[in-house]
Amino acid sequence: MKIRKKKKVDPFTQFLENKTSVSLKDRETALDYLVAFMRLIRPKTDKPGEAVQNFGKTVFFLQENPAVVSELRIAILAQLINSNLLPLLTESGITVSRGAGRELYARFKHKLLPALQDPNDFLYAMDRMFYRKNDYEWVEQIGHNLWVQFFEMIGLSFHGREPVITRQALVALQVLSAGVAQLGWENAIVKNAPFKEAQDDNPFAVQQYLVYELKELLQNNGSHEAVRTLLQRIRQVFEEDLQVVQYIRDQTAERGASLSQTFILFQLEQKLDRMQLVLEIVDVDQQMDTSRLASLFMKVIRYENRKNSVWEFLSQTTGYLAYQIAEHKTKKGNKYITSSPLEYWKMIGSAMWGGFIVCFVAIFKILLGKVHMAPFWHGFVYSVNYSVGFVAIEETKSTLATKQPAFTASAVAGTLDTRKGDNTPNLYNLAVTVSKVSRSQMASFIGNLIIVFPVTFLLAWLYDICFGKPMVGGEVAMKLLEAQHPWHSLSLLYACNTGVFLFLSGIIAGYVQNKVNYGRIGRRLTAHPFLRQYVSKTRLQRIAHYLEGHAGSLAGNISLGFFLGMATTAGDLFGIGFDIRHITIAAANTSIGLYGVGWNNVSFSYMAIVVCGVLGIGFLNFLVSFSLAFIVAVRSRGIKLRDYPEFLGILWKFFRSHPLDFFRPRRRLTPN
Question: Where are the transmembrane segments (predicted)?
Fold first, then answer.
């Protein structure tokens, strides 16, 4: 007997066959209609691109069935007319409304026991339509532009036919306006704002007066011309508010930013953006901005799906502070990127001086290891030794190859930053920047290693001449070589640990520099009542000026020194095999070990593998620290790399056409 296969039912045909009658007065039936419609778009699997394909089919289906478009419009309006819109307009998607501590507490609490939702709330309808916790993912995959097209096709407009909506929008406008005015009077805003007389010129306060005037005008049936003039004035003040926000943000590159100021700016921007949308609902003659509507739609779905996510909250609200830290690193990162042959050779020369200093750091570490002391104090003196060496490299304006990635990664991410220019980054220029970073990193590695290998060997030989015995010999010297071997030891894993520490030290450097700038540490030092009595004004100003320019780098270098110096001690303390491998230190240890063992007592093939191990250590130092710093820099700027899938192809084409640009700068032809 033949078993007949079930015929696959076309979801669009099934949707049409249901023939649900939608009415503005029947909210529940209209909501069921919208839930069924969203099933047409929702992907059934995690296959990439399925949501976009479903969306394309749905749009074609709507074009072929104008009646469905009309029903869809009525179903959406039924939700808007018969629902409480205030939570949607004043709260949803505005994440930092209660302060950081209270917001975190609320999210933890609602994770354990979710808040009860009012069925009359419009967000109840949104949760019914997008009930899965990952629905925001496919909504975002479809993209902003396609949702704009969708809303334009639906053709939502209010035009005074829905007074319930406009009345609620007016109340929402007053609520948001009061919040903006309150934030605009915060000390972190007033003292950094460009207006001279806060009492008269504060645009955050002005907008509240204008919104109240609009309410009075509409309630008293003011003339059409008067309403239009007032709305135009309100929009101008909104622009002034946003300019103040941007001005303060631009200044934080010099002045720094606090977490409190970051939260306030974040809230102001969110509330002002929402007010502009709400104002378009209040203004019945103004055409709805579908772009802003689509943005709100996507934000609300993400917020509702992730409203109890602690990680989402921390990621969103601390993103701008991370951006400021990344900006400080970007400025420094630009000096590590070479463009011309002259800069390239200067980089090699600077790295050679850095390598020369590292030679002494490695020698002193070996000598300190000979001194008998408790393990903690060994780790401490190692840390001080590293810190002094790294600070000396910084002060002499030398270069250490492994310090570059944490800073150049921010500079590379900066080329994708749409906050600073056009909305579409130039991916070809990004490929050029990557080639510059590659050759600059190559130059610094070369400069470090061509000094570290021979000079450390020379210093070990001089020690032997002066003291009549090698610095290390026999089994100890062989262990130094073995520690760099790629598979006889865990050197490559330890190199990854070092990459993490290099990244963390870069974050610390940016954070401290940001705090010094924001806290006006230099000016506070020069005005210190106790110091002014015992230190001359000139010297105090020099100290303040030095700290303003070098506090971040000092903190980063000292922290890196202690990370590296205490790593082995920490591993011994907890009984785990934890250690670090840093390419320049590893290269120096290889030279010391080779001298101690002797050229004749080790095979050429073994030494070749050890040298390859040292190069592998350098590669992993770079890869891990660059990757982590790049991820932080990209996330802090709100950049999504998946939006630029074509970049790898552009980079590959650029490499094929200009492969040598990744290793050395191209010679520029001078005009005759």
Answer: 344-368, 374-393, 445-463, 492-512, 546-567, 604-634
